[in-house]
Amino acid sequence: DQNILILGAGQAAGTAVASLRQFGHKGPITLIGDEPAPPYQRPPLSKAYFKGELPEERLFVKPLSFYETQNVTLRLGTSAKTLERANKTVTMEDGTSLSYDKLIIATGSRPRTLPVKGADLDGVLTLRSLADVEKLQVYATPGRRIVVIGAGYIGLEAAAVARQMGLEVTVLEASERVLARVTSPTISEFYQTVHRQNGVDIRVSARMEGLEGDGSHVTGVKMADGDIIPADVVLVGIGILPNQDLAEAAGLLCENGINTDAEARTNDPDIYAIGDCANREIVQYGYRGRLESVHNAIEMGKIAAASICGKPAPKLDAPWFWSDQYDLKLQTAGLLTGFDQAVVRGDMEAHKFSVWYLKGGRFLAVDAINVPGDFMAAKRLVGSGAILDPQELADVMSDLKSLVL
Ligand code: FAD
Q1: Measured in angstroms, how far is the CA atom of residue 11 from the centroid of ligand 1?
Q2: FAD/NAD(P)-binding domain: which residues (predicted)?
Q3: Ligand 1 centre and the CA of 405: distance in Å?
């Protein structure tokens, strides 16, 4: 049976391993990861795990014993350095080489670094891994001051948790609203309000100049107008970059991620790319790009495993995402690609509503806050091209099932 090598041991890799065995692959599987932990789920890092409410093992995609019983070789705490496609080998940092019949690249992504003076000071942190949370938790005591740079989902989730732990929290966002890259002005405004009500100092259109330090440790953020915001810790959450260097150096096609086809295959038929590092097609939306979500990591892990095992591709699920902040459980179904109408259904003040995104009257996506029923209904509509009546949609008394015209 074929010898399978997987680079990167995160959510996508963990799913691929489980699916390979499930689809009947009997041959050797080796999983290489540069972190010490086996594949784990990252979402709780900015939520319950950051708060100290979950033990590390609860994050694992599969318990450690799974890899032993399934005869999967784990090589953790070590990174792969180069890929030589001609002789189908990967060279590790210690110089050893591993060969493969099929290779799966699941190297994920890394946080962007801040291109300003002082970004390398102690206390300037990012939030991607278990090790990052450990560093952040050192500062997580009441009264400490945290400045979060970047108001994406991760930055805002961390801000919410830090506030709940009693820290003084400032969020600096360069664009004119929070979550600008991922959602509508309606949702952005809502989150800005909730954060402010919870005592977070949210500053949008913020122009920062650099980070101030005492020689070794960060002490504050210097703004373009000369103002200095004091900080004991600075969390940088300004997006991620795909870990595609090794693939690119080996001549695999990459454009913002490693290009893949419908089977998660790269331009080398023996090499697959899955998860955050992959550039894929989402047929329902005519979209090509990277998706940074658990749904995508799991789906691509299954697709690659099915292809390797010669099984039919699994049925594609609608793209979806979630975010937890305070009492708000946000669930997004679909992709907000170029909507021209946003219809609010429900009660924003009561924190129970959804925003339906339409394009030319056709359903595109939903952001649902504390209304899982709306999310479920919307998920079923993804890809249907359904035309929805905005007035009926906005009426909570109307049955969502009857809205499809
Ligand atoms: P990863 O999980 O990043 O795994 C890749 C692994 O490969 C890493 O361990 C990396 O260190 C390793 N690696 C890289 N290069 C090498 C190499 N050369 N050799 C060996 N190992 C290597 N998604 C949601 O849908 N909902 C959420 O609420 C949500 N919250 C999130 C909160 C946080 C704090 C973070 C960081 C992410 C969140 N995400 C969320 C996104 C989601 O976790 C990612 O999309 C998912 O983890 C991607 O899985 P992956 O396997 O592609 O990459």
Answers
A1: 6
A2: 3-301
A3: 40
